[in-house]
Each structure stands twice: as C-alpha cells, then as structure tokens.
Amino acid sequence: MTRNIRLREEDIAPNIYIIRGVKVMLDLHIAALYEVETRTLKQQVRRNRERFPKDFMFTLNQKEINRMVSQNVIPNKGILGGAKPMAFTEQGIAMLSSVLRSKKAIDVNIAIMRTFVQVRKIIANNEELAQRLAALEQKYDEQFEVVFNAIRDLIQPPAEDRVLIGYRVGSKK
Question: What is the CB-side half-sphere exposure of residue 47 using CA atoms within 13 A?
Fold first, then answer.
C-alpha cells in the first residue's frame, strides 16, 4: 500500500543548497523524500556509478560537511554514520529515477524537478528586480545630482572679485 502524498514545492525547496556554485540536494534529504534509507540510495548510486558523472553528483569534502553541520543543514556528523554525504545536481536527481524504479521515486523526482524550475524562476525574478532597482537608483541619482549641484553653487563663495560695500574700519580717505 503506497501512500499518495503530494509533495509540495514548499517542502522541497528548503532542501536545495548551493554548494560549489551549483544548486544541489543532499542524499539524506532525497532519501527521506523517497522514503528509503540513505545507505540504500547510496548503494544504488555506487552500483550505477557511470550514470553519475561529477556534474551530476559529487561527495562533500570535510570542510563542506563542517559548514553544513554549522548551518544545521546536517544535524550532526553522527547522523552520517561515518559516510560523506553525496550532493546531487538537478541532472543527478533526474538520473536517480533510472536507478530507483519505484512509483514513489518517480513521483518524488517529478516534484523535485518542478521545484528546481520554480527556484530558477525565483532567482531570475530577483535578478530582474535587482536590475530594475539599479536603473531606478541611477535615474534618481541623475535627478538629484542637479539639486546637489545647485546647493553646492549656493554654498560656495563666488570666484570673482566683488566691490565691497559699506564702511571700512580704520581706513583713511
């Protein structure tokens, strides 16, 4: 009996991290979504290693593990059981569907792929928003530059000699 639980993007997105400059999910989070043990997932990957080149999957180094533990992505090193976590890119997760052939794996992969697409859209929207903000700042900086120049002109003393008006103290005619 398979539970038909619909995975939501909101449940998956927090498990997508940027490591080595790419968006990835860790094996322990993927295994939890697939409802399999992490060691089972890793075993299937090792048996089909040729399907997972470095741009699909890589193993975290000790520095990356320490960073993930300090950020509470990994609760503690003990949960790893001495094994280093595998990080799967979007393509690596898609390849998992050819290695893990259950109905659950297919459903989870579809949900994860949709989430990656949404994350990409959010990032693109944020970049567009940042560009618009920069353009507005530049536009308003130019407008305020006129105001600032006018204020500077009022503050600075005139450059030309002026005829003095009034009495001079201690002067003789």
Answer: 10
Q: Which residue has the tokens 């994860």?
A: 112
Q: Is 98 exposed, middle or buried (0-12, 13-18, 19+ CB in 10 A)?
A: exposed
- CA–CA gap between residue 79 and residue 73 (Å, rounded): 11
Q: What is the pLDDT of residues 84-122, one digit of tens each?
A: 999 999 889 888 877 877 777 777 777 887 887 787 777
Q: List, in order, residues 6 or more apart from 28 with CB less than 8 Å away.
A: 38, 74, 79, 80, 85
pTM above 0.90, yes or no: no
3-state DSSP assignment of residue 85: coil
